[in-house]
Amino acid sequence: MGPLFSITRRGILQAGAAGLGLAMLHPFAARAQAGQAHLRIMETTDLHVHIWPYDYYADKPVDTVGLARTAALIKAIRAEAGNSILLDNGDFLQGNPMGDYIAYERGMANGQMHPVITAMNAVGVDGGTLGNHEFNYGLEFLKHTLAGAAFPLVCANVVTREGATPDQDETLIPPYLVLDRELTDGAGDTHPIRIGIIGFVPPQITQWDRKHLEGQATARDIVQAAQAWVPKLRAEGVDLVVALCHSGIGAATHEPGMENAAIPLAGVDGIDVILTGHAHLVFPGPDFDGTEGVDNAAGTIGGKPGVMAGFWGSHMGLIDLLLERQGDRWTVLNHTSEARPIYERDADRNVIPLVESVAAVQESVGAEHEATLEYVRRPVGKTSAPLYSYFALVADDPSVQIVSNAQKWYIAQMMQGTAYAELPILSAAAPFKAGGRGGPDYYTDVPAGDIAIKNVADLYLYPNTIRAVKITGAQVKDWLERSAGAFNQITPGQADQMLLNPDFPSYNYDVIDGVTYRIDLSQPSRFDKDGAVAAPDANRIVDLQFNGQPIDPAAEFIVATNNYRAEGGGSFPGNDGSTIVFEGPDTNRDVIVRYIIEQGTIDPEADANWSFQPLDGATALFDSGPAGVVYVDQIKGPQIEAIGHADGSFAGDDGFARYRLML
C-alpha cells in the first residue's frame, strides 16, 4: 500500500493537535468484529506541482500548501490504521513555477522523472486519475511523465479511437483498474478484497487544450462513460468501486457534457465511493452548505460517501468505511467522511501550521526545488517599458495593460472553433497594488528590461481563474460606469478637488481594452459604492467607441476577465454568472506567465485608450507613492505634477505623496 514513514514523538503530538491521534480510536476500528474491517481511503487532489511548502511567486516559504505537508497526515493514518489506501484525483502536472520550469525549460524526455511523480512515488500513492491540467503541455509530455509513476493511473472518458459504444472505445490510458489487497478484520484475520478504481476528467479539455488534443483525442461525457464502463468493472468481481472524479460538485441533474458532474456520477449504479476535485473547494464543509444533492453532515454526494480535499495539498481527504464480509464479498455497513487540513487560522486570521513537512518527500525533489528558485529569479523575458502602478487610477497604466494583453491573447485562442469565434474580444483588468490600505509602498514597480517569473506576483496578486463573458455594447458602457465610481464628482472651474473615492477599492477599477472612452467627472456616479443604481440619468462614460465608431448598444462582445468579476464580484452590470461563455481552468497569473514566455519581449506600454474629459479651470489632487515621481513625465495623456503637502513635505505623515492632475 506504499511506504510507511517513521514517526517521531513530536510528529505524534502534532498529529494529535490536528485530530490525527484519535485515528486509532475511530469507532469503526473499535467496533469491527470478526468478518468486519475498517478501510480508510485517503485522497489528494489538485496538487498542481505544489510539493514544497513554498510560494515561488512571492519567493518565500508558506504553511498553506505542499504535498510534503499532506504526507504527514498520510503517514499518521498509515501508522494507525491496519487497512488504508491512498488515491490521487488529478491536476498534479501544472500550476506553479516548478511545473513551468520542467515544461518550458528542462523538458520531459523519455526516461526523465517529473518531480511531482517523484514526490508522489515517495509518498506512496496507490492509484490515480488525470485532471484537465495534465493535458496543458501536450500528450507526449504527459506520456513521458506517466512512465515514471510507480502507481497505476486510469481515465475512462479520454478517447483516442471511438468505438460503436463507449465501452468499446480505445482510451488514452486504461479506463479502470482492479487493486487486489488484503484486509485485516476485527478478529485479526486477513481476507482478500478487490477494489475497482475508475477515473474521469471534464470533457471541456477538448476546448481548453484544443491545440494539443485536436485530431489525437476526444472526451466523452462523464456520466455516459461511467454507465458504459462501471458494469464492466463490476463484472471483474470487485467488492468496491471508487470513482476518481476530477470534476466538481455542480448541479444535481445530469446534462450532457457537464464540467462539474460529481452528483450525477454518484448516481450511476455500481459506484460505491466518489472522490472529487477540480473546483478547489472542501467537502464536507461550509463551501457546500445548502447544496442540493449533497449532505454535509453525512459526507455524502448523491447518497454515496464522498470527499473533496481542497487544493495544492491544503487538505487530505479521508473516507472511513466499515465493511462486512458476506460469503466471499465485502459490503459497506457504514461510513464517515472528512477533509483534514494542514493548517488552520486563529482569530486574527494568522496561519497556524498543524503538521511539519515529511523530509523524505521534500528531499526527493530538492534539486528541482533549487532549480525552480533559480528559474523564478532569473529573466524569462523582457519588458520594453517599465511596469508601475503609481498612477493606475488616474491614467492608462502599463501594469494593467500587460494583464489585459495577456487575457485577450489567451481568450482569443480559446474562442477559436466556438460559436463565438467571430465576436470581437475586449479585456477588462484592474490595478491590485495601488496604495490605499496597503500603504505608500504598495505599488508595482518593475523597471524596463529583464522580467522574472516572480515579478508576475506583482502584476496579479490573486489566484483568480480566467473567464470570458458575452455582453452587449450597452453592458460594456454600464460596466465602465460602475468602474468610474472610483472618482469623486469634480466641479468645473474649481481648483484642487480631491479626486479618488476612498470607499472604492482599486481592484474594482476595471479598465476595458479594445474600446476607447473618456470619463466626465462633472457627472455624478451612476452607481453607489455597493453597485446599486444611485443616479440613473448620469453618464460619466462619454465618447465610447469601438473601431473608431460609436459603440452599438446592441452589438455583442466577448470580454476577458476573471472568475471574481464574471460571477458577480463587485456587482458589475453584465456580470452575474449568467453571461459566462468560457470558464478557463488556468489562473490569470498563469496566463500572464505563459504570455511572457511565448512573447519573449512584452510591450506593456499603455495605449491611452481612456482619459478624462477636459473640465475648464479644474484641477484634482490625489495621493500615491513617493517613488512614483520618477515616472510623472512618462505618463501618456493627462498632465500630472508632484506638489507635496501644505506643510511643504513631499510625503505626508502617512507616507503618501500628493500629486495634482490637470483637467
Polypeptide structure, described:
The protein is α/β, with parallel strands linked by helices. The longest helix has 18 residues, at 398-415. The radius of gyration is 27 Å and the shape is elongated. The relative contact order is 0.11.
Structure characteristics:
663 residues, alpha/beta, Purple Acid Phosphatase, chain A, domain 2, 5'-nucleotidase,  domain 2, 2 domains, 8-stranded mixed beta sheet, 6-stranded mixed beta sheet, 22% helix, 28% strand, elongated
Please give the number of β-strands: 39
- By CATH reckoning, the class of the largest domain would read Alpha Beta
**Low-confidence parts:** 1-25
Q: Give the percentage of residues in beta strands.
A: 25-35%
The radius of gyration is 27 Å
How would you summarize the topology of this molecule?
Blueprint: H1 9-17, H2 27-31, E1 36-44, E2 54-55, E3 60-61, H3 67-80, E4 84-88, H4 97-106, H5 115-123, E5 127-129, H6 139-146, E6 153-154, E7 158-161, E8 170-171, E9 176-184, E10 190-200, H7 205-208, H8 210-213, E11 218-219, H9 222-234, E12 240-245, H10 262-266, E13 273-276, E14 282-283, E15 294-295, E16 300-301, E17 304-309, E18 315-326, E19 329-341, E20 343-345, E21 351-353, H11 359-364, H12 366-377, E22 379-383, E23 387-388, H13 398-415, E24 425-429, E25 445-446, E26 449-452, H14 456-459, E27 465-472, H15 473-483, E28 497-498, E29 511-513, E30 516-519, E31 541-546, E32 549-550, E33 556-562, H16 563-566, E34 580-587, H17 588-599, E35 601-602, E36 610-612, E37 619-624, E38 639-642, E39 657-662
Parallel strand pairs: 1-4, 4-5, 5-6, 10-12, 12-13, 13-17, 22-35, 24-33, 28-37, 30-36
Antiparallel strand pairs: 1-18, 2-3, 7-8, 7-11, 9-10, 14-17, 15-16, 16-17, 18-19, 20-21, 22-26, 23-25, 24-29, 27-33, 27-34, 30-31, 31-32, 37-39, 38-39
Helix pairs in contact: 13-17
